[in-house]
Amino acid sequence: MDAQAYLAERGALVDGRLDELLPATTMEPVSLHRAMRHLVFPGGKRLRPALAMAAAEAVGAPPEAALPMAAAVELVHTYSLIHDDLPCMDDDSERRGRATVHIEYGEAVAVLAGDALLTLAFECLTNEAVDPLCAAPAVRALARAAGAAGLVGGQVDDLAFATTGGDVEVVESIHARKTAALIAVSIVGGARFGGAAEALLARLADFGRAVGVAFQIADDLLDEGEDDGCSLLRALGPGPARERAESLLVRALSLLEGLGERAEPLRELARFAVRREL
Prior knowledge:
Blueprint: H1 3-21, H2 30-38, H3 47-58, H4 67-84, E1 94-95, E2 98-99, H5 101-105, H6 107-125, H7 132-146, H8 151-164, H9 168-193, H10 198-222, H11 232-236, H12 238-254, H13 264-275
Antiparallel strand pairs: 1-2
Helix pairs in contact: 1-3, 1-4, 1-13, 2-6, 3-4, 3-9, 3-13, 4-6, 4-9, 7-9, 8-9, 9-10, 10-12, 10-13, 12-13
């Protein structure tokens, strides 16, 4: 399986859904709606939505079954990027090859655009077309992954990391919340919308957490030479960090045993996420 071709194909599906969900740039307030779309289109790799759809396929459902979760997770991910780029956070001026939202539209509109994307994610999971039996647990899981126990809490500890230092356990705790929580909820949500049983969902959550931490290590290795910040490169060095990513990947793949060929897209996306140009 070609992971990049899969990402492109599934990305087109989620782009169509996102375009339907997001307000048109001609609707008032125009500045807000343009800012909301600014980083959604063009998107990144759409890895998280693709993982959601691959998880649905792994449990025997069509990829479209996972579209509510796929779109919701991408909206949350984009909101987090907009807020991470703000001057009070990472103070970045470029994202996805273009000016960051606060540079293009101003800091206040950027904050509000992020807020609007976050709330739209939950609207996406609870509209009339979504199975209510899947919607409630999906909303609860996504809220936890995005909130103080997950992404937001991880970001707070990441911001404090430069002054507090930290060992491998501290770094992985931050990565597990800031990065892996959203990856894991993508996979579990996609499988849930695909009809997976609870026991399998628990196994897929473990898979997602392992892949998520390994994915962050891979990102840090690709950015080697820049400010290491909160990374296993800083805690371990490049060689051991790379070994840690590979060991997490091996463990993750072992959790998919018994799912057969239909889980191959999920396996290949995990390999791609961790072994990109390593």
